[in-house]
Amino acid sequence: xxxxxxxxxxxMYEFAIARQFAQTNPAQAVVARFIATQDSRTRVLSPDExxxxxxxxxxxxxxxxxxxxxxxxxxxxVRKSELTEATWPEFDLDAGMWKIPADRMKKEKEHWVxxxxxxxxxLRELRVLSGDGEFVxxxxxxxxxxxxxxxTLNQAVxxxxxxxxxxxxxxxxxxxxxxxxxxxxxxxxxxxALAHTIKGIKGIYxxxxxxxxxQKILQVWANFVDAQIEGGRKVVIGNFGQSAA
Length: 245
Hints:
three-stranded antiparallel β-sheet, 11 helices, 2 domains, hpI Integrase, Chain A, mainly alpha
């Protein structure tokens, strides 16, 4: 709610300034990451930290599939299990769409993820790496007819020597939300992209899906993340069809 209020105030002042009713925008000085209170945690990675983490991931010796999984977790803003348990029939890469079924969302309806061009490229590589299996991230232990375990990505990230404050993978969703709010994007569209339920009277009357804006948001976010990676030393991200960096 604090983020939503700040965003509304920011846009109101922008409107007033454009019509010369005001000269300054005090809401601009309120940094979104300092008022983010989603869930019980408040950890938000800074732009520099986003770049540091992903550069370290790509420079590490973990499997190529896991590198792409961490990157996709950042880009798609989904929950960890929603990504690691994904199956290929859920995707239409030509359309840039991913439909997560209701039963996997543990909700009454499915959730549509609008894939950025970067995410589509990574998924096309994963399609080759995963072979003929059903799962995007098949297990390498025992049967490949099941996905990687819930702890695999956590263990991979913990194994890295990261020069950043402690964070958990779920913080990546909050990180995306906070930075997108700072950019001035619609709170409702961001909440829909996160598959959050809009609560209260507003949620009852607001059934909009914000498809066009969500598609824009996910592409803007992917471009922003690219810029943070490229802000440090160059790391080769594209490695089509290879199993190691």
